[in-house]
Design brief:
Layout: H1 2-11, E1 19-25, E2 28-35, H2 42-49, H3 53-60, E3 73-81, E4 86-88, H4 90-98, E5 112-114, E6 119-127
Antiparallel strand pairs: 1-2, 3-6, 4-5
Length: 132
């Protein structure tokens, strides 16, 4: 998939940050779309690769391409929607902070009441076994 994504970006002469979305099928991966823009997974890529994608994106337009980074850890993001109103108390906020999970919630949202269907985005990373 990585090789196919790189081939497509070169074939379409895309510059900067680009994303290629795949769907896994019984016959292997199938390209769904090519996105010539920053991806929704920007924060997870930056965490996993330890790279500033915005800087790399801007630099590429002056001919400076970064070396291809290796992943330093796994990163994932989840967006949660509550089906009912909920309350963030100190205990829940302490868990979020302890897990070092960046979130769309402000750190001072303790004692906040969030309405139903309020999106909460959390990003989490875990070191890979080969990382020190």
């Amino acid at each position: 998939m990585e090789e196919l994504a790189e081939d497509l970006v070169l074939r379409f002469k895309l510059l900067g940050s680009n994303g290629v979305d795949f769907l896994f099928t019984e016959n292997g991966p199938v390209v769904l779309e090519i996105n010539p823009r920053f991806q929704g997974s920007l924060d997870t890529i930056e965490k996993a690769m330890d790279i500033n994608l915005f800087e790399a994106h801007v630099d590429c337009f002056s001919g400076e391409l970064p070396d291809k980074p290796n992943a330093k850890c796994f990163a994932a993001r989840g967006i949660f929607y509550s089906d009912r109103e909920f309350f963030i108390d100190r205990e829940l906020m302490d868990i979020i902070i302890r897990e070092n999970a960046p979130t769309s919630l402000p750190r001072n949202c303790c004692k906040s009441r969030l309405s139903s269907h309020f999106p909460v985005s959390c990003t989490s990373t875990r070191k890979m076994q080969s990382c020190p």
